[in-house]
Amino acid sequence: MQVTAPGNGDAQGTRAPQRPIRSFVLRQGRMSPAQQRACDELLPRYGVDPATPLDFERIYGRRAPVVLEIGFGMGETTAAIAAAQPDIDFLGVEMHLPGVGALLRRIDEQGLANVRVLRHDAVEVVATMIVPATLAGIHVFFPDPWPKKRHHKRRLLQPGFVHELALRVAPGGYLHVATDWEDYAQEILATLSAEPLLENTALDYAPRPAYRPLTKFEARGLRLGHRVRDLIFRRPNPEKQGRTTF
């Protein structure tokens, strides 16, 4: 999320240029040769160019429900979910280039025709590229918790952004968040509960649904006693009250 913050200024009292504050930091890490090749060779095939708005039927070559995943990391979960649900199209948004390369390799090796990758700021993607009420679902798995209190303003799931997400979900669609940070889970629960377009599918936290696989990262956290909390909210469909879409 981009927010402007005032600079320090100078001795003459003029203001320095404002610096953008984003909800992410590009931690590039080390690109493996295979990940680099995937970015060079496969991004033109499976990547999506930023456009306003995104034309999902053109991107996937068919009309099907679309699920947006924000921050797919190394793509392990994205690929597993997409492989198990071939009738649903998945759009993964990620800035971390090694992760983009890793997911591209999975797409190609597994022949996943229902996954596309967009390397862009998710906040801008949602705000300018996705038409309201067009998504069947949104996945935000393990967003950066920004654990230091002074950095909490960088957390992705702020009320304004949650409202924008809710607007992009079609009636009957869902927003699924998972986190292993207790205070962030509590903050997200309060934020989602306060969004008038959404309703909780559980009393507070939901059981992990079968479609979200247990990752190696998560399994390690569970062994260390880190509880993972799933929050699944839906946008009610007035025409189909009582039915869920996941």
Describe this structure in words.
With 246 residues, the protein is an alpha/beta fold. It has one domain: Vaccinia Virus protein VP39 (Rossmann fold, 3-Layer(aba) Sandwich). It has eight helices and nine strands. The strands form two sheets. The chain has a seven-stranded mixed β-sheet with strand order 5-4-3-6-7-9-8, sandwiched between helices. It has a two-stranded antiparallel ribbon with strand order 1-2. The radius of gyration is 19 Å and the shape is globular. The N terminus is likely disordered.
List the defining traits of the structure above.
single chain; 246 residues; alpha/beta; Rossmann fold; 7-stranded mixed beta sheet; 9 strands; globular
Tally of helical segments: 8
CATH architecture: 3-Layer(aba) Sandwich
Q: Trace the largest sheet across and list its strands.
A: 5-4-3-6-7-9-8
What is the CATH first-level class name? Answer: Alpha Beta
Q: How many separate domains? A: 1
CATH superfamily: Vaccinia Virus protein VP39
Helix content: 25-40%
Q: Helix/strand/pairing class, anyone?
A: alpha/beta
For the sheet with most strands, the description reads: 7 strands, mixed
Strand content: 15-25%
Stretches with pLDDT under 50, minimum 5 residues: 1-21
- Any idea of the CATH topology? Rossmann fold
- Number of distinct beta strands: 9
